[in-house]
Amino acid sequence: MKIDARTRWFNRAQNGVTVLLLLAVVIGLAVLSVRFDVTADWTAGARGSLSESSQTLVRDIDEPIRFVAFIGDEPALRERVDRIVDRYRQVESEIELEFIDPDLEPQRSREFGVTQAGEIFVQVGDQREAVDRFTEAGITNALARAARASDRFVVFAQGHGEPDPMGQANHDLGQLGQQLQDQGLQIQRVNIARDGIPDNTAVLVIAGSRGEWLPGEMDRVRRHVADGGHLLWLVDPYGNLMPELADKLGLGLPEATVKDETGQALGIDDPSMVLIFNYGDDSVTEPMEAVTLFPHVTMVDASGVDDWDRQPILSTSRDAWLVDLDGQRLGSGRFDLGMLMTRNLEDEDMEREQRVAVVGSTAFLSNAFIGNGANLELGQRLFNWVSADPVTLSVPVRSAPDRQLDLSRNAYTAIGVLFLMILPGLFLAAGLWVWWRRRR
Amino acid sequence: MMLAIAGRELRSLFLSPLAWTVLAVTGFIHAWVFLIQVDTWVDQLQPAFAGQPEAPGVTDMIAAPLFATAAMLLLLVVPLLTMRLISEERRSGTLRLLQSSPVAVWQVVMGKFLAILALLTIMVGVVALMPLSLQIGTQLDLGKWLSGALGLWLLVGAFAAAGLYMSSLTRQPVIAAITTFGLLLLLWMIDWASPGAEDAPLVAYLSIIGHFQNLTRGQVALSDVAYYLLFMGLFLGLAMHRLDAERLKS
After folding, report:
1. pLDDT digits (tens, 9 = 90+) for A15-26
2. Could you give the dihedral angle defined by the CA atoms of residues B221, B222, B223 and B225, in that order, rounded to the nearest 10 degrees?
């Protein structure tokens, strides 16, 4: 073969084409491998990927999912969060994760109501939920809450002289209603006699009824409770105490008002203004610190409740007394102004907790009084508790199989000596021997 | 023929003190790191994680970090092992002999690659054995351990392929080592400027360490394994092409 300038040029061109071909093949295969990717999870119990129930949930959500983590510049923590969110990304690659440094962006922290670094939120569409425990179970349930939140209707029964949850008059509940809507709850006013109770009612609210209820209406309410619907019931001592409903729940609501002189410390001379300074250890009021103020309140007696777990809230001082509407003194001592009642309902594949909250006053949430002390906070907490989505998806907790290492002292020493001395020593000896043989 | 070249190459590797010294030194360093991690686990992590749901275990906190350390250490070591593979032959003139012999170029390249891969397999094996020895005291997550070891093996294979190509470009082993190291380091750090795959998927894909990290988590994805196989294929192909072109010129 004679080589001249032409064949040389030809060779060079051929070289270039070969390299280009090689590159094209490699890039093509790489694109294919990403396009038709399959992943196998080799971890024990597949703990590196999502459980079946989480996968189903993520697939069923068609709105965009977003995680917002308030974590400062801590790579290890961020990495851990990213890793768990990654499991969700394997199912739905569009999931976003945003890290916010709470020190650098205080206004975002305020917007989310973040109190401490390390809080994590999930957003489905524009519904936001806090993740309480950063495990798969915690995240999946927060996702489920957020996904269901957009159709959580808080239904206010109307038509018996109740205050209007959108109204601006002094006795109305407009300020509270506005707050609840800002939190993402959907508020509906429903005339039960005319329209019944909608199927998608998350919470039925009966607040401050004054007029009579028709028997058919009362049946609907009782059926709602019997079927496991949540109920928030705020009575008005001068209004309709609805004995039919009280009997159904086993509660005693006397036609009387509680009086207490705790207010004098704050210069309130009227003993029918009951102030609560100390709260119990229940989930609703326990974190509260500021005082709450109740004008015209009756007591809630739960001694007749049998098939519910009950938790009294808002206890007066020991020196409170009870008078009937004519001013007759009925008794004295410590009274509970509210009651939280729960019971567990078993469906076929999930557990639900039914929640009922009863408070012996409506006026404490009215526009006239809601600005006092922590009344607004208490109202929000009550609504949050009773409208919470206590459905819990069962996500199996899959722990690492090797969380306990039991090495005897001897085994530990043996491992150390083997890897630190014997193996390197053998390699070194072999190297020396080879070197020595070559010298000879 | 390919295997004959691989055998010859292996013999010359193990008849020089270099391979043995590298094995001894890397083995010692890994053992040191491993024992520190075991201590940390026993003294601090195990009590701290007690009672925490979904807390990591021995495999997560000892095996996976050890493989990550090994990846970093072998990034420094592999270029030293591959630098002589072809440049040395070129300098001593034996490359000419190989090229004029009836052996196909691909057999030469693959033979040398297999030899160095055999040595690296021993190294990865020694590293992988360390966490495996803890099986006497616990129930290791063997699947995760295996995918981490597989990831490390694929990663050092990719290192070696890149080193072999660089060695085919020059007659100076030191230059081959430095360029190999530079290339690998660039691919290692390529996605540091844009963390997260959302804004720059191509950069994230190119990262030589990202795919390895997925494997150390026990997630064996076709695309991650394919990345390393394609990486090896590309650089071995380039090395063959380079020697082929040289053969025609001479």
Report:
1. 888 899 999 999
2. 90
Taking CB atoms and an 8 Å cutoff, what residues of chain A touch B235?
none
Could you give the 3-state DSSP secondary structure of residue A67?
strand
CB contact under 8 A, A434 and B126: no
- pTM, whole model, 2 decimals? 0.66
pLDDT of residue A329 exceeding 60: yes
User: What tokens appear for B12 in the block?
Assistant: 């010359």
From the number of C-beta atoms within 10 Å of its C-beta (0-12, 13-18, 19+), residue A342 rates as middle
Q: Do A419 and B30 touch (CB under 8 A)?
A: yes
A398 touching B, CB under 8 A?
yes
Question: Which pLDDT band holds residue A35 (cuts at 50, 70, 90)?
Answer: very high
Question: Tens of pLDDT along A65-82?
Answer: 999 999 888 776 777 788
> Chain A residues with CB inside 8 Å of B223's CB?
30, 33-34, 37
Interchain proximity B248–A11, CB inside 8 Å: yes
User: Looking at the complex, does the CB of residue B227 fall below 8 Å from at least one CB of chain A?
Assistant: yes
Is it the case that residue A388 has pLDDT exceeding 80?
no
Query: In this structure, are residues B153 and B121 in contact, taking their beta carbons and an 8 Å threshold?
Result: yes
Question: CA-CA-CA-CA torsion for A373, A375, A377, A383, nearest 10 degrees?
Answer: 170
In B135-164, the residues whose Cβ lies within 8 Å of chain A are 136-144, 146-147
Neighbours of B91 (CB within 10 A): 14
